[in-house]
# Entry
Amino acid sequence: DAMVIQNPRYQVTQFGKPVTLSCSQTLNHNVMYWYQQKSSQAPKLLFHYYDKDFNNEADTPDNFQSRRPNTSFCFLDIRSPGLGDAAMYLCATSRGLGGAETQYFGPGTRLLVL
Amino acid sequence: AQSVSQHNHHVILSEAASLELGCNYSYGGTVNLFWYVQYPGQHLQLLLKYFSGDPLVKGIKGFEAEFIKSKFSFNLRKPSVQWSDTAEYFCAVNVNGNKLVFGAGTILRVKS
# Structure
């Protein structure tokens, strides 16, 4: 089945230690997104790629970076995780940009910062 | 800034009860509206969406939602819930063509 895959499902890191979360897709979609979801809150968009074009949300901290080496993979890098970065990180894809496009989500990676 | 409000964070219903989950958004322009569902242990998946045409939208598993532009609302309904509808439900608005703004979610528990 075509899908969005996130690894690992759970990630534990230490305060200040860089961490990378990964996302892959078999849908061959042009757009890939990263959302952050803190406990009991709405998912919040961090950034997205349309093909190789990177689009950062204005309020995304500089501590968060992303890479998309090819169509299938997208990575979220947190350079110096703080306790406040503990959250669920959701990857999503869509075929294109456009208000009516459906976004397809992965299962998420839960990040714990010690 | 655009925002989405979901009125209830937790809802508990008995099987066969009717369901209505409220969703209001703040944005004056053209909107595309979505309901996503997350079953326990699973990923977010699309329940239904509105982008034009008939404001009453039918989705999967017997769910429907009505877009009322004058009330900035997109409430989700189901006439008779089942135990398997236990999940978290998220309303979302797409306003700029690439960004979904989500509500905080409503956790529905259906008692069998």
